[in-house]
Amino acid sequence: MSANRIDDGCEVRLHLMRRCRGRARRLIVPLITVVAAAGVLVGCSDGSTPAATEARQKTWKVPEAPDAGIRDELQSLFEGADTRFAAEEELVHRCMTAKGFHYVKLASPSSDVHPTMSRDEYGITVAAAKRDGYGSRERLSRAADHPDPSGLRQMTDQQRKSWGEAFYGPDSVERIKVELPDGSRIETSPQGCLSEARKKIFGSLEQTLKSSYLAANIPIIARKKAAADPEMVALNKVWAQCMTSAGHPGLANPESARSKAAGAYKTMDQSAAFKLEVEMAVSDAECEREQGYAAKRRELEGRYYTAAMRVFGAEITAIRKHNQESLVRARNLLSVS
After folding, report:
1. In a 3-state reduction of DSSP, which class is residue 44?
2. pTM for this structure?
3. Region label for 151, one of left (φ > 0), alpha (ψ between -120 and 50) or beta (otherwise)
4. Three-class DSSP category at 185
5. Which one-letter DSSP state was computed for residue 89?
6. Alpha-carbon 230 to chain mean position
7. Nearest to residue 331, comparing CAs of 6, 86, 4, 104?
8. Is 18 exposed, middle or buried (0-12, 13-18, 19+ CB in 10 A)?
9. d(CA 145, CA 17)
10. Which of 56, 65, 137, 281 has minimal Cβ neighbours within 10 Å of its Cβ?
């Protein structure tokens, strides 16, 4: 999973355990990524209702120019996330310890991080491309070296099951289910140390599901709409033609180039994969520079980000209010820890 995406169905919370009812039970996750660092809730989406989606789509009005500082506005939807995460980890640690389980607190980020606004998957420079390609080798190395602070790898299957039930709540408990403004539905457990901690910090698990999931997904929704814009389609077509001329056919956009480069490490030895990645990244950088790709795309996406902030205006007001109230509780909890 890319660091600036959240999987459409589930969200990651821990290194080694991931629970998503209706899709998968428990998966091994190689990366904690900024999603967990930002404290995004474990939840599942089981699709969207057509009526709700259609109603939301009709309200989109894309301006001629983006609002100034629109990316900062989106980033601010996770304001205080580092403090809330630190408080959550402290409460989870207390709860797991009280239940007789070993739990090592995860370090909170040094600053607030929006899990789906961390970086653009385009705009690479020629110098960076020559030096590191797209950085796939480094990311894959970090993924292979993921930590296991609470020692889950050393547990037996039964021990991991008991640990997971203490953390997430038992499988048999009825889930809290919430429908989001875009029509998608997500759910989480009302029990377990994680939910107990979040109740104390956020007050309402239902509102927290809505706030965290929607705040993280607003940029994704906006980018998906921007990708279908004729201006973006034309921009990517010119880029793709340039890449074909450079010897890299069959690529739709810079994201597809990065994906192909990362995939090469699965079928080639590392040195050959890195050589291919650098060649592709350099061509990408040159093609982007030739057509002013990054500036044009950022401007277009900024317009859709602006539209999204207006479309979800009422929900964003609720998110900000919820964040501030939760931040006060988190600070109070940390001050007496």
Report:
1. strand
2. 0.81
3. left
4. strand
5. H
6. 26
7. 86
8. buried
9. 16
10. 65
